[in-house]
């Protein structure tokens, strides 16, 4: 009974903490700007008296970056897809049916040819370039949001000891996250009613929690193994934390639309993760990341051995 209570408390605390970013967003810029003003540099006018230099206001851009992300991913990207699929395509279909109304069979044949052509053209000319552009721009904006929030709460980031270590950790993290996403897709195919879907949801909750907290942990100098172990050891809290974003992104059937939804709401979860204090002390660690970490280690080891053998042969 105590374990169930502890699990429930951790789950609910994680869920509530994940929503804190909404309120943080309303006052964070003001606090950052006020602190910047209060810490404006001072210089000695003479040996006895000090005069403050004119205060230079350094405007925080957290709210601006969040709004820019919403505009790019919501009003430009997502809205254009919805307008094309639910307004423009039905209108074109209606025109085809009107033009060839005398022969419904011809109308259906023409539309059966036009629809995939229009979809492919729209996706190649508009969706794919904008998707790649949004990924690049979002990564810069998300990093800007995370760094501003971290410096305000914790001061200067404590990066890892060397640039090579940072690069290796980042590459290994990307590989682990990609394999973990594949693992979540595989467990969703389990032929057990609701079990596969539940396991997939838990995977996505933990993955989105990792995304949200990784900015803070990286700035704290935590290596990937420490970040993953912390999530596995305190998984009830992180399941609750990632639950809102996991549910929101699973509602759309389209991967592209799901990505837009993620990009719209994710900045709020970055702020929530920066403010949150996770509940620790779970009795039963959930080692869901361990399989993909083992596979990633094997792949890196294989690549390193291959590179060493090529070097020796030269």
UniProtKB/TrEMBL annotation:
> Where is this gene product found?
Membrane
Give me any GO biological process, just one: macroautophagy
Its record classes its membrane topology as:
Multi-pass membrane protein
Q: Which InterPro entries match?
A: CysZ/EI24
**Membrane-crossing residue ranges in chain numbering:** 70-92, 112-133, 166-186, 192-213, 234-249, 255-272
Q: Which Pfam family is one of this chain's hits?
A: EI24
**Keyword line:** Membrane, Transmembrane, Transmembrane helix
GO cellular component annotations of the record? endoplasmic reticulum; membrane
| Family according to the record | Belongs to the EI24 family.
| Protein name per its UniProtKB record | Etoposide-induced protein 2.4 homolog
User: What is the phylogenetic placement of the source species in the record?
Assistant: Eukaryota, Metazoa, Ecdysozoa, Arthropoda, Hexapoda
């Amino acid at each position: 009974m105590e374990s169930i209570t502890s699990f429930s408390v951790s789950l609910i605390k994680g869920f509530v903490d994940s929503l804190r970013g909404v309120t943080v967003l309303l006052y964070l810029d003001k606090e950052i700007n006020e602190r910047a003003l209060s810490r404006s540099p001072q210089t000695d006018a003479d040996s006895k008296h000090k005069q403050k230099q004119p205060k230079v206001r350094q405007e925080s851009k957290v709210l601006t970056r969040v709004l820019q992300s919403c505009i790019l991913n919501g009003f430009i990207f997502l809205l254009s897809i919805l307008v094309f699929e639910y307004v423009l395509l039905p209108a074109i279909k209606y025109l085809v049916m009107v033009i060839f109304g005398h022969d419904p069979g011809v109308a259906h044949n023409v539309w059966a040819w036009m629809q995939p052509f229009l979809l492919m053209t729209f996706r190649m000319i508009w969706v794919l370039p904008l998707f790649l552009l949004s990924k690049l721009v979002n990564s810069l904006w998300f990093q800007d949001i995370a760094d501003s929030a971290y410096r305000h709460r914790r001061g200067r980031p404590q990066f890892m000891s060397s640039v090579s270590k940072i690069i290796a950790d980042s590459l290994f993290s990307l590989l682990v996250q990609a394999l973990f996403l594949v693992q979540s897709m595989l467990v969703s195919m389990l032929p057990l009613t609701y079990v596969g879907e539940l396991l997939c949801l838990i995977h996505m909750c933990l993955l989105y929690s990792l995304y949200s907290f990784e900015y803070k942990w990286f700035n704290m100098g935590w290596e990937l193994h420490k970040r993953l172990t912390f999530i596995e050891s305190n998984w009830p809290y992180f399941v609750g934390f990632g639950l809102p974003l996991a549910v929101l992104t699973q509602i759309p059937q389209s991967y592209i639309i799901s990505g837009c939804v993620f990009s719209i709401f994710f900045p709020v979860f970055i702020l929530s993760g920066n403010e949150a204090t996770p509940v620790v002390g779970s009795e039963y660690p959930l080692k869901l990341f361990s399989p993909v970490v083992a596979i990633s280690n094997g792949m890196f080891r294989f690549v390193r051995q291959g590179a060493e053998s090529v070097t020796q042969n030269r």
